[in-house]
Amino acid sequence: MSAITDLQLARMLLRQWKPAPGTYTAPAAVVTWDGAQASFELTGAAPDPAAVVLYPGLGRPLAQAIGAPPQRPTGPTISALVANYAAATAPLQSAAGSVALEARFLSRLNAGCRKCPHWKEADLAGRGRCDSVFCHCTQRLLWLADEVCPEHKWAA
């Protein structure tokens, strides 16, 4: 078993980080990675909030396991990202440099998302949401460096 962080766990579940197949231990879960898919068992520890922002599904099973109602992920709102990008993305900076530069984020938002009929900026408490059937992760695509719009409105 190899020790990893909750952020690495979130990146693995999102298939942004593909380590060698094996079993990995993060504070929030023990995960088995077969090289293409991950399965995990919760440890009972609260996940790193930045990991829940990257992968909201990490918070829901934990809440269910301890009998608490699932809470909405508290990722940065679009207005916070536009007003002060560095502060809004600071909790995610330890995600191995995966946060896009502010200029790239603004370009994606203004030239792509805001002009797309699938973009719902007010949804998810102001965090924004893409309702394309091809988009499974809402606005985090905007601020992660290596992501690509599933509707081909912008590239990495």
Write out key terms for the chains shown.
156 residues, alpha+beta, 2 domains, 4-stranded mixed beta sheet, two-stranded antiparallel ribbon, 33% helix
Textual characterization of the structure:
It is a single chain. This protein is an alpha+beta fold. It has 2 domains: 2-65, no CATH class; 78-143, no CATH class. It is 33% helix and 13% strand. The protein is built from 8 helices and 6 strands, in the order E-H-E-E-E-H-H-H-H-H-E-H-E-H. It has helices at residues 6-13, 49-54, 59-65, 78-83, 85-89, 102-112, 123-126, 140-143; strands spanning 2-3, 22-25, 29-33, 38-42, 119-120, 129-130. The strands form 2 sheets. It has a 4-stranded mixed beta sheet. Strand 2 and strand 3 (29-33) form a beta hairpin. The chain is globular and about 45 Å long.
